[in-house]
Amino acid sequence: MRPTASRTRKMSNNYNDIPIGIRLLQSFSRHCPRFHARKELCYKMSIFLLTFLAYTCYHMSRKPISVVKSVLHGNCSNAQLQDEGNCGYAPFDGPDSKALFGMLDSAFLFSYAIAMFASGFIAERVSLRYFLSMGMIMTGVFTYLFGLARTSNIHSLSYFIIVQIFAGIFQTTGWPGVVTLVGRWFGKKKRGLIFGIWNSHTSIGNILGTLIAAHYVEKDWALSFVVPGIIIGAVGFLLFLFLVDQPEIVGCQPQPDTQERRISNESDADNDDDEEQARRSEADQISYRSAPTERTPILPRSQASREHAATGRPIGLIDALYIPGVIEFSLCLFFTKLVSYTFMYWLPLYIQSSNSFGPTLSAYLSTLFDVGGVVGAIAAGYVSDLTGMSATVCTVMLFFASPVLLMYEKYGVLSLTISVSLLIIVGIFVNGPYALITTSVSAELGQHSSLEGNSNALATVTAIIDGTGSIGAAVGPLLAGLISSHSWEKVFYMLIVSDIIAMVLLMRLVIKECNTLRRSATRIRIE
Length: 527
Prior knowledge:
Structural class: mainly alpha
Number of helices: 25
Largest sheet: none
CATH architecture: Up-down Bundle
Radius of gyration: 24 Å
Number of strands: 0
Strand content: under 5%
CATH class: Mainly Alpha
Oligomer: single chain
């Protein structure tokens, strides 16, 4: 016998219990008619703010290493500095410092990329409140342990690498968790703009992490890690108290598109033709979907599969790869994230070495790249909503990113004003496609119509796309560490080539989007 919706909701309540903080708020608001009238809006705002705050903290805890590099390996050309012992912190005070920094970055990023695939698989099967809370608290612990090395006088390279590996593993709890929560609570209407505004947490987290680390870097670099570690742990506990995992838990309706699919899956078999037509109509509106594949369900249309879909059975990694667009956007994100994370981990050091600025000023200037990232994420999401052409929006921004990168490398050293202006522009065009793919596109593909109503694939699809991108994020800083020993100019050439490859990978989807737009325009003229 197929489980009913009420029985499914009951099982969900037993598994995803109401948080303690929400129970207290419910008891206080029992006699407040305004809360009950706007209950769903209040819960949506709480999800938006809590997930925004959570991923802000995740990125804040990643950023200190890029700032602290400048003091871990100091300028030892001055004999007085050598006598005072200010040449850096062993084992990073030698001539091989850039290679060691590259090893640290790779330890974090490769462990992050590999663990991301498993994390998305787990996130679909557990309570996201526990999943995110545990991940944030453990991330805080290992961020704290990196700073503890200075206060405990630890100089072992193995210690730093092990800390980075575990920090990378626990950081993977963040992205699949927060994207899935936002996807569950918000519908498709204006999704690009909502995700664009929401995704500014990445850049704001980078900015806060940079400012905190820069404040302590020349006084006591241990605090550059200790303070972010304490903050993310505290916010993780806050999520444990107040994060509502699913709308049904607190008596709210699921997002409209998800609810409609569940109702459709519980209808009789004689409605199959109408359902198929509805899916085809929806496919025409999603420009990057392949029309023939769109009509072929990924999950077989047997009675058993309908029951699994109705109860939200998570899909496997292989099934997710068959969703049209997942492979193209995953490979594109590999190269776009390579560029973004190379800036994230090496920009402060590049500014310091090319402009002869101090560590603090270089760190402050590097935040301008993230300021541009906020603007780029919102702009990309807004334009994507207007046009429905996500791949084309990404391609256009990548097209302009390459010459802007070249301009920054050539003219960014001429004056502070030019450097500031170009950094913001670079941030807009580099981070815009990256933000759009990891948010709106991932959420759309995770609720693709070929899933036959199974809306419980968000975390898996998000993990595949972001995990593939994270491999690029690991490769970029590693190559930058090796290439920068010879020339920073060659690093920029690597970034420009990466953007061009990312643009080429989306061309098939861009052509489909343009053909769809042309057919729509033709139909309008005929009518």
